[in-house]
Design a protein that fits this description.
The chain is α/β, with parallel strands linked by helices. The chain has one domain: P-loop containing nucleotide triphosphate hydrolases (Rossmann fold). The protein has ten helices and six strands. The strands form two sheets. Strands 2-3-1-4 form a four-stranded mixed beta sheet. A two-stranded parallel ribbon has the order 5-6. Helix 1 packs across helix 10. The longest helix is centred in the C-terminal third of the chain and has 25 residues. Bound molecules: adenosine-5'-diphosphate (ADP) and magnesium ion.
Length: 278
Amino acid sequence: MNFKGGSGKTTTTAHLAQHLALHGYRTLAIDLDPQASLSALHGYQPEFDVGENQTLYGAIRYDDQKRPISEIIQQTYFPNLDLIPGNIELMEYEHDTPKALADNPGQGLFFTRLDSALSEVQDRYDVIVVDCPPQLGFLTMTAMCAATAVLVTVHPQMLDVMSMCQFLIMTSELLEVVANAGGNTGYDWMRYLVTRYEPGDGPQNQMVSFMRSMFEEHVLNYPMLKSTAISDAGLTKQTLYEVGRENFSRSTYDRAMEALNNVNGEIESLIKQAWGRA
Ligand SMILES: Nc1ncnc2c1ncn2[C@@H]1O[C@H](COP(=O)(O)OP(=O)(O)O)[C@@H](O)[C@H]1O
Ligand SMILES: [Mg+2]
């Protein structure tokens, strides 16, 4: 999550979910962004392939059209990886929630909705990865309340880091309200991932040093490097795991893959630590 668009949320989610699936974890990826880039990366065109009540909205809506999450989950062409696609329908939840809160104060609280939907299928998965929309609305808050860990993607530039700080302040204020109402706001871990990093760029290095001194061990050791292999793969709605090495100069592909494996390996070990399996 992060409310800055272009901070690498979707790219990170897609590559993490696919990494976990390729390593044998039964993985569910949830697209919570109405723009649905994560769905597009997995072959679901949000306008054409995703119909009414076929996004997560169907499982967390407040009216009697709500249906079991198991009916919404789709398979992907990756073994071990399932997907709940998104599209513009998810926006309904942002509009419905204030109304539901006003109509039933105390009842059907928004922050338990994803949690209880997921409890129906939690035996089927080892890890569930959620790609959040670029704003701090009810969808993001709902995801934060269901989450056991949080990853904030940050592109190390002055304006991005400033906007992230604003995001953190707003998030902590909102989470306090949720915690006071009895919602879950405890996490096994919370980390910042530096994205689209260019090691040769002086100002970026200054921002990374600044973040490390501010957030210390909460910044992942490995950054995700900026690479044309990642952005070119994205143009054809693919991840680095899907494109062939022959499409790039070897060093370009290998450097991107090494950075990706380091980042995903570090996240995987945080997950294992939380399970007591480190
Ligand atoms: N490591 C990277 N190297 C090069 N381009 C990247 C990298 N990560 C993301 N991008 C590109 O940056 C753009 C924004 O990334 P995206 O993951 O969609 O961000 P968000 O989901 O936060 O809006 C996309 O075009 C994506 O291909
Ligand atoms: Mg995105």
